[in-house]
Amino acid sequence: MDLAAKLPQMEDTALAVLRENAERLEQTGTSAQRAAAAALMPALEAELENRRAAKLAAAKTKRAATKRSTKKA
Asked: Under a CB-based contact definition with an 8 Å cutoff, are residues 26 and 36 in contact?
């Protein structure tokens, strides 16, 4: 299994560190490291965006539930 396939199972902090490392390697790594980092970045960015969207949706749902419960009181 390649690293991109493991991204959904990674914790948020590990994913953030991986992104920082990939960005660094794209700039300062060997040619093989730059290529590997560049290949990983699209999947990494997509996973981060999916998580941001999920967190925003959860917050929106929570706010809506809070408004409903406040109106009933």
From this structure: no
d(CA 47, CA 70): 35
Task: Label residues 1-24 b or e (16+ Cβ within 10 Å = b).
Answer: eeeeeebeeeeeeebeebbeebee
Burial grade of 68 (CB within 10 A; 0-12, 13-18, 19 or more): exposed
Q: Over its length of 73 residues, how does the chain's per-residue pLDDT go in tens digits? A: 589 999 999 999 999 999 999 999 999 999 999 999 999 999 999 999 999 999 999 999 999 888 877 776 5
Six-digit token string for 3: 């690293």
Residue 11: phi and psi, rounded to 5, are -75, 160
Total-model pTM:
0.81
